[in-house]
């Protein structure tokens, strides 16, 4: 009788195309990133299959001998985008710009391509979503016709690489990575396998040629970048392009940046004639009312390092249908609900069932805790039907006990408010400790100049100071 064989049959292995998680059996949902339908079978091997190369293209050098100028950023000509990228685009870097359909990604990158071509560099714009004639019409509308800007409409990855070989561009714009497919791998364009192959090939080409690359990416319903999660790890910079399609305001944020900060934001104004950067966007977020209006309060939100003066509006109405509602436009509805609860429990307002509506002016969206005090003051003014004096701004975070907590960057916030003509500010206790005649630095001028700054300890005392004769109006709470 023959001895039993000790050799083991290789078991199939499965890997998630989103995050790389592996398992020995197929499952419909990844156990790591919880993605559905992303687990695929991969060839199982007994060990490593890649051997060391006999020759290398670039030998290792001492780090001090590496030329650092190769990684210096080159401005794109769009100052707001350069602010987010850290000065411009680095040669060989791959930037992923993701956003919802119709938000203006193609318009922005076509403007970037035209401005880059104006500096004498060669730019190749490849579109996979439109025809070349459609892109040409948009370029004519926004004034982006340049002799060194080349245009191609392709959906095949091999054809895109052929255009790169023929044009030898300094900057490549691919719109979008989900519409280009490779014949070397299976699957439709936009699938996990195709997106991974297209991105890896383009990135390898960009690194070899020192070609800066801008990739347009789609987003899913939950706002994340469509395609495999490994796409965000492969690229050097990930930017999100945000904005309400009913508003002209657009914002670019850096989620990942290997060459610069990730706390900057660029503001743009999108119109029929194109997209332009907004050096001073705060004026878009303030109403034009010259007389005080109940239920309004200005605040200063920090978007990255940039302070933006935003007006918060609130309205309290009788409940419709016997069920109360809390609605928020441009604000975090969860934080608005918390502010309403604090007003009920700590101040005694909004105890009668009613609908609460809050909104920001200009389509800006801010979710940071520093706007809590402004939301509470606006709601208190709506309940009392009393208006704050024009030029009042409130900055502070609310605790569940009703206390007003400090927030970072108060100096920058108040300096921006003073620049726009605000005359009085409500801030948490301790803000003046480092400024003014009693702040330990006599003779120094605070960043907010002559603006009156009032410190508040808690929401109850703040509301009592602002609305001393407050009385909830019948049917408004």
Automatic annotation (TrEMBL):
Keywords per UniProt: ATP-binding, DNA damage, DNA repair, DNA-binding, Hydrolase, Metal-binding, Nucleotide-binding, Stress response, Zinc, Zinc-finger
GO biological process: recombinational repair
Matches recorded under InterPro entries: AAA+_ATPase (IPR003593), DNA_repair_RadA (IPR004504), P-loop_NTPase (IPR027417), RecA_ATP-bd (IPR020588), Ribosomal_Su5_D2-typ_SF (IPR020568), Ribsml_uS5_D2-typ_fold_subgr (IPR014721), Rubredoxin_2 (IPR041166)
Domain of life per record: Bacteria
Keyword Ion transport recorded: no
A cellular component annotation (GO) from this entry: cytosol
Binding site for ATP: 99-106
Domain RecA family profile: residue ranges: 70-219
Span(s) of short sequence motif RadA KNRFG motif: 256-260
Pfam families in the record: AAA_25, ChlI, Zn_ribbon_LapB
Region listing for Lon-protease-like, in residue ranges: 355-477
Any one GO molecular-function label of the UniProt entry: damaged DNA binding
Function text: DNA-dependent ATPase involved in processing of recombination intermediates, plays a role in repairing DNA breaks. Stimulates the branch migration of RecA-mediated strand transfer reactions, allowing the 3' invading strand to extend heteroduplex DNA faster. Binds ssDNA in the presence of ADP but not other nucleotides, has ATPase activity that is stimulated by ssDNA and various branched DNA structures, but inhibited by SSB. Does not have RecA's homology-searching function. Plays a role in repairing double-strand DNA breaks, probably involving stabilizing or processing branched DNA or blocked replication forks.
Record note on domains: The middle region has homology to RecA with ATPase motifs including the RadA KNRFG motif, while the C-terminus is homologous to Lon protease.
Similarity-based family: Belongs to the RecA family. RadA subfamily.
Protein's UniProt name: DNA repair protein RadA
Species: Pseudokineococcus lusitanus
